[in-house]
Amino acid sequence: MVGQPDTATVAAARAGDPAAVDRLVAGYLPLVYTIVGRALEGHADVDDVVQEVMLRVLRNLGELRDPAAFRSWLVAITVRQVRERFRGRPPAVPLDEDLRDPGADFTDLAITRLELSGQRRETAEATRWLDDDNKELLSLWWLEASGELTRDEIVEASGLGRQHAAVRIQRMKGQLETARAVVRALRAPRCAELTGLLGAWDGRPGALWRKRIARHTRDCMQCVPAWQGLVEAERLLAGMALVPIPAGLGSAIGHGSLFSGTATAATAAAQAAPLNIAAKAGVPLLQKALAGVLATGVVAGGGAVVYTYNTPAEPITTAAAVASQPPPTTAAAPPPPTPSRTSPSASRKPSAKATSVAPPVTRSAKKGAAVWKFAGSKAALKDVGASWYYTWAVHNNDAPGPAGVEFVPMIWGGDNVNDATLKQAKAEGDTLLGFNEPDLAEQSNMTVEAALAAWPKLEATGMKLVSPAVAYGGDTPGGWLDRFMKGASGKGLRVDAIALHWYGSDFSAASVNQFLGYVDAVHKRYDKPIWVTEFGLINFSGSPKYASDAQKVTFIKGTTAGLQKRSYVERYSYFGLPAVGDSVDFGLYRDGDSPTEAGKAYRAAG
Fold it and tell me: Which residue windows are coiled coil (predicted)?
């Protein structure tokens, strides 16, 4: 966060002050470059995406109402541009190691310019082994760990809820740790088996080889030290500076590529002047080129200032009315507000779908949904036939439900154990969900001892208490849940039911019995009713990341049928109801009446 302009600079830039635009661009360009560079690791498109981001930011700056929100808005635009590049025009194939240019490759640049060594260097090299979607998240989390972004900014930029973002970050960190071990194993003296295994490897980092090498190192006595002594990544990244911008980026923009989409000759002439004069005067080309966007009138709307530079210290400004300038055709919108649902009759033409009779909605007392804020949540809860739902909070302010659908509050973590929160939870209903994934550092992150110490306050509400929901290992002797349940029994604490989470990376039909077997094993161990509050098919550490529609439908049909038959299963909720933003590949509803194929299967369940 050091050196970034304040809100007064943002406000002045929005009003058309060229010097403020200069400071804004100079202050935030390293942040944008670092996010894009790490997300598009090893590709030739980094400079192009950075240029697109900055152009879109300046073109839409007049639409930013709150200058204090500028950085969050900027990061959100950056992430969207990265996603557009992956979706619309796949990045180039990474170069072979021997052909990499240290001045162009982002990891090499970071290692060289930040003078990384030891485990910091290993961590930087390990980023090449991450899946593409994890690289995007890594680019944000890395900046959080180094003090440049906040968790709130990551949540807003990624489009994820706070809890979902925490889960994704934890899984990404697990993949990063695996990749660090792979980097170590490849640098260390190799055993004969690993040498033979690598005979078919083409030298390019990838998910398949990451898994193969990691699997070998875990089982090999000679190679297993690669996993030992790994310092926590956050400790390695704390205080690490942003990666300096390569000189080639400014030079490329100086040749005018930034303005290839402008509309008129007058605009082009106004842009060319600051570029040429800035080049002669030695002013940083990138900053002056971007500042020239003011000439198009797209920063503050009509009436912006047109200006050129003689020297860095003496801008020559002239007032010019540019109200007749047509709006830019490639402008990006600021982060979208919460969408409002429109009438189907106003937005859709009559179709066979609209006139057909929908299958009857099945409402089981067991069937629920894990919900975060999205347009149409109330209608979707009704359409899917949920009897209950939760939001990982003690209230449902962001996702109010329809009449007749029970909301179940949750005490998410230790910080939420206070009189005011517990009072609110008690006002919401009769059942209280315990802490969310306390066994994960990126979730509620509680020790068994801390959870046991807080539990009497939950018990004092008089509500039915469902145990903390561990991320994994609920049936493992000596695991987090096992120690919690033994501790509760020893202290005479009440736990009325067990909460479980389960995610499968095997997308075959076998996943149904894998999941149900886990549920059975946990019930057998504790002999208590079961609440499955999150379950689904997501591969957090490999590829493909998500199951196909057919695989999800098979899984949902099989698992819900099994859960319905098990008398000891009191409630279950698929993860999750929204299929928007980053959840489009696994969620159930795009809006209030548009279920995905998985949503249709879940609607029919129960």
Answer: none
